[in-house]
Amino acid sequence: MTSMTDEAAAPGLSKFQFIALMAMLMAVNAVSIDIMLPGLQEIGASLGVTDENHRQYVITAYLIGMGVAQLFFGPLSDRFGRKAPLLVGLGIYGVCAIAIVIVPTFGALLALRFVQGIGAAATRVITVSIVRDVYGGRRMAEVMSLIMMVFMIVPVIAPSVGQLIMIFAEWHMIFVVIALFAFTIATLVVFRLQETLNPDHRRAFTPSVILSGFKIVLTNRLSLFYTLATSVILGALFGFINSAQQILVGVYGLGLWFPVVFAAFAGMMAVASFTNSQLVRRFGMRALSHAALLGFTLASFLWMAASLYGPVPFPLFVVLYGAAMFQFGLIASNFNAMAMEPLGHVAGTASSVLGFTQTIGGGVIGAFIGQAFDGTATPLAIGYFTVAAIGVVFVLIAERGKLFKAHNPAG
């Protein structure tokens, strides 16, 4: 691990610039999903999709492509460095966005979204690897929290940008904006980001070496079960994203106010991430994330109980769901940092396995929850509590039944 000061995070970049660039890379996936939510109905209508739940496949296809490809980009970045594979991924992502503009059928759109997800996998895997190259322990959790805070600003802005595009243009223009975003980030990577992988840590790109790296990750109890816990919790978030337009517009009748409410929930996660960045070096990753996991479980249980009793009034829905999402903001960055902490020597491969498991696992769970939509928010509430309870079990296994026990010193 490289020793960094607050002023310098990576060669040629201040800490602020480093966090901003990493957040932009992470935001590629948020932009790909959130900016199009206001346009899903028009996408389905223009391409002949009759079942409203099938519109969710635009998101699911992307997540599957991204999840599978992460298994390859991690080992590639351990062999060839972080920068080159990252640029390849951004190129694939941007070209697919342009191709979708002229797509003739819904099936072709889904195929391109799958390939676009493959390109986006590079940003997910390699960004986490770069952060692990530079930081470790509570410092990594702090920086990841700041990255997540900036990253969460995108869901605040993206739906409103998508809504604005839909007012003045049709849904195709959304993908033009996505392509421009990707090529802008690629330009910054070319001219501003230097290689962060230590040459001594490069690993051969052979089946035996790749499999040995996967074995290191999958046999580490802490990494494996924190990854699984993150996957199921992420599945709840994907479930909401899949059905957000149907719930907020169809159930609660928000109409044009949909992006505002969606942004407010994302804003809660951003505030939580910032709070975590300020507290994690003092209290530790486990104290904060374990308390947040229990809070997430409690909020989800209350929401489920209220939903089973009858239709949940919108103000109560906002309070309970908002409370759950605030806890999520404390969980995500800490769980990822704890999963990566023991694996710095194979950061690329580790990030790929962790990313694959979280994206595919979360994507499948989210698709299952989203497809259960029945005209009410009850399936989503049940899904949230179910994954929360499973997450608690995984964390207990990771920690051998003991919560709140610090592993890293403060500072």
TrEMBL record:
Keywords: Cell inner membrane, Cell membrane, Membrane, Transmembrane, Transmembrane helix, Transport. The chain crosses the membrane at residues 18-37, 57-74, 86-108, 114-131, 143-165, 171-193, 224-244, 256-275, 287-306, 312-332, 353-373, 379-398. It is found in: Cell inner membrane; Cell membrane. CDD domains: MFS_MdfA_MDR_like. Residues 18-401 form the Major facilitator superfamily (MFS) profile domain. Coiled coil: none annotated. Its main location: membrane. GO terms for biological process: xenobiotic detoxification by transmembrane export across the plasma membrane. One of its GO terms (molecular function) is xenobiotic transmembrane transporter activity. The keyword Membrane applies. One of its GO terms (cellular component) is plasma membrane. It is a multi-pass membrane protein. The keyword Cell inner membrane applies. It holds the Pfam family MFS_1. Belongs to the major facilitator superfamily. Bcr/CmlA family. This is Bcr/CflA family efflux transporter. It comes from Ensifer canadensis. The lineage of its organism: Bacteria, Pseudomonadati, Pseudomonadota, Alphaproteobacteria, Hyphomicrobiales.
